[in-house]
Specification:
Keywords: Signal. The chain is mainly beta. It is 3% helix and 54% strand. It is built from one helix and 35 strands. It has a 35-stranded antiparallel beta sheet that branches. A hairpin with a 4-residue loop joins β12 and β13. It is rod-shaped, with a radius of gyration of 39 Å. The termini are far apart. 35% of the residues are buried.
Length: 598
């Protein structure tokens, strides 16, 4: 019975036969001299250059060399001297020695190996090349020269279809402007984009970047960093959940859980969004912004909607805008000082701090509390020692009003045009009120019994304090005044005109700086995912199915994967603290000023 085949089956059979023939395509060769030496090279042809180099051609790859040993039956050759391999127009390689198996399409090269691609050149001592996978691999140290940088590592793998290098172990990227050190780095040749995994640094003359996950555009000099990232400038350290960096503009921004540390002036600013301009020596920070000036004995905290710090280290100026709150504590915690205003200006060189009201957004006149003493006015100036930041004096301009809550009932009050206060060890010791002064005081005896209420008009008043309480009051150029028993002093006359006790606004602790404010809505951080673990470079093979040949220089055990050569950081085994919803898109990385949502 004659067997019939359908057209479809015939097509499948033909494709299978063609594919098998293609897979086992024989290596073609050309040589000026061809010899046999069965004793030294059994079953092999010895090919040599006379005028022209020995030439091999196999399925799109061409090889030139001075000498070769060709095992035709095994479809395998070993090449020596001035070797040049060419695969299409995109890959060329030179070396001193090479091997190639036409059946497995696997090559090995050693001795001054140099592989060139349109954007990069790879140099190493020995290189494995799998044409089926279109991958090259080295593990004895290598160097890749890019249009902008030079990259070196102990282990490297090149994926031709992705035009991607994956470097492991002692990875170094050297650029005229900076140097990158990393545990693991992926580099894309066409774009110059590098992805850093594990502890990594980017060092230059002006800055050092540290991260444990990051992206860097080696040609555009911009970066994005997450996971324990920070940027160190000459006198500032910037930390945050995510950092953006632009080297050309000397600009950096940070998002979420930010700290900007001034290493010279011993100050720190925190918040959830910040911009740093290194060349301008300026910092902008918002979203729960808090500046802390750290001294040996005292700490001054400034909180506002927005904080700006400008100037060289010796001339730093701090500005805060909208709902400014300050709190100053000492080591004892017994003499806190706090205040509120619409805006603040603090010059660290002169020690001058101004509490002022600049806009309609302000919630009233500036107010300052020193222990139980409340001072208000159109503006308040504080003078501190620039070295220790301990308070020296204060000035309250226009409509100055001092209120001290009496120990039992009522309020001691003093008002005038200008108030000057003097401090010792951060305690209010003396207050002078000048021009059109009015006072109202509750007078008590040594047993703290109320003996009367005094109301006096004068042009000039001095008040002395002991333990932050009014002890003595001296009137100069007294115009009018008397003391009346409590029962004879009308209750509706016990407050001077303009009286406004704001004790409920007083800040009693650092935590009180944020009282009544909602937690800021933080920007969702887009992380940088760890790379997927690629297939192992060397496939598992049977003992009689050699990747190269039994006549290879390399023992079969050399062509095995080693655990120490695999990726250290990969999605399969690492669970990161930052879980991205989607990978970061490089094109979406803009300067912080373009990110209006921040």
């Amino acid at each position: 019975m004659k067997k019939q085949f359908s057209p479809l089956v015939l097509i499948i059979l033909l494709i299978s036969v063609y594919a098998h023939a293609q897979k086992n395509q024989e290596i073609n060769y050309d040589s000026d001299r061809t010899l046999k030496n069965e004793q030294r090279y059994p079953g092999a042809l010895i090919l040599s250059k006379v005028d022209n180099q020995v030439y091999f051609d196999h399925d799109g790859i061409e090889v030139w060399c001075d000498n070769a040993v060709f095992y035709k039956e095994a479809n395998f050759f070993k090449a020596y001297g001035n070797i040049r391999m060419q695969q299409g127009d995109s890959v060329s390689m030179t070396s001193n020695y090479a091997e190639y198996n036409g059946d497995t399409e696997f090559a090995f090269a050693s001795g001054k190996v140099k592989m060139k691609r349109p954007q990069t050149t790879l140099e190493t001592d020995s290189l494995f090349f799998d044409r089926v996978k279109q991958q090259a691999y080295y593990r004895s140290g290598g160097k890749v020269t890019d249009t902008a940088s030079v990259l070196t590592s102990t282990i490297g793998r090149y994926f031709m279809e992705e035009d991607k290098y994956s470097f492991v172990n002692e990875v170094v990227v050297t650029n005229p402007e900076y140097k990158i050190n990393s545990d693991q780095l992926d580099f894309y040749s066409e774009s110059g984009h590098a992805y850093l995994y594990g502890p990594s640094t980017i060092e230059s003359e002006t800055s050092t970047v540290y991260c444990e996950r990051g992206f860097y555009d080696t040609r555009g000099d911009t970066g994005y960093f997450v996971k324990n990232s920070q940027i160190n400038y000459d006198n500032r350290i910037l930390k945050g959940d995510s950092l953006y960096f632009n080297r050309q503009n000397s600009f950096a921004s940070a998002t979420n859980n930010i700290r900007v540390i001034d290493t010279i002036n011993h100050s720190r600013v925190t918040g959830h969004y910040a911009e740093v301009y290194r060349d301008k020596d300026s910092v902008f920070i918002t979203k729960r912004a808090l500046a802390a000036s750290l001294q040996e004995k005292d700490t001054l905290f400034v909180h506002s909607d927005t904080i700006m710090i400008t100037g060289k280290p010796e001339k730093r100026v701090i500005r805060g805008f909208y709902d400014v709150r300050i709190f100053k504590e000492d080591q004892t915690g017994e003499n806190p000082m706090s205040g509120r205003s619409d805006s603040i200006y603090s010059d660290q060189q002169s020690g001058l701090t101004k509490l002022i009201n600049l806009s309609a957004r302000g919630n009233g006149k500036p107010v300052l509390w020193s222990a139980d003493n409340q001072m208000t006015g159109d503006s308040i100036h504080l003078m501190s020692n620039p070295e220790t930041e301990q308070l020296d004096s204060l000035l309250v301009f226009d409509n100055a009003f001092l209120i001290q809550k009496d120990s039992i009932e009522g309020y001691n009050q003093l008002k005038g045009k200008i108030l000057t206060g003097y401090f010792q060890e951060n305690e209010l010791q003396k207050v002078v009120i000048d021009k059109n002064t009015e006072t109202l005081n509750y007078l008590r005896n040594e047993e703290n019994q109320l003996i009367g209420i005094n109301k006096t008009l004068a042009s000039y008043v001095e008040i002395f304090f002991e333990d932050q309480q009014i002890k003595d009051v001296y009137y100069y150029n007294q115009v009018d005044g008397d003391t009346s028993p409590e029962e004879e002093f009308p209750p509706n006359a016990r407050k001077l005109d303009g009286f406004n006790w704001r004790g409920e606004e007083r800040i009693l602790s650092k935590e009180g700086l944020f009282e009544g404010q909602p937690e800021p809505k933080l920007t969702k951080i887009k992380g940088i995912p760890l790379p997927d673990e690629p297939e192992e470079f060397f496939d598992e093979r049977e003992e009689d199915d050699l990747l190269l040949d039994r006549n290879s220089r390399l023992r079969p055990e050399v062509l095995k994967n080693r655990k120490e050569d695999s990726l250290k950081y990969k999605t399969e085994k690492i669970i990161d603290s930052i879980k991205p919803d989607t990978p970061i898109k490089v094109d979406s990385l803009k300067t912080a000023t373009d990110k209006k949502e921040n």
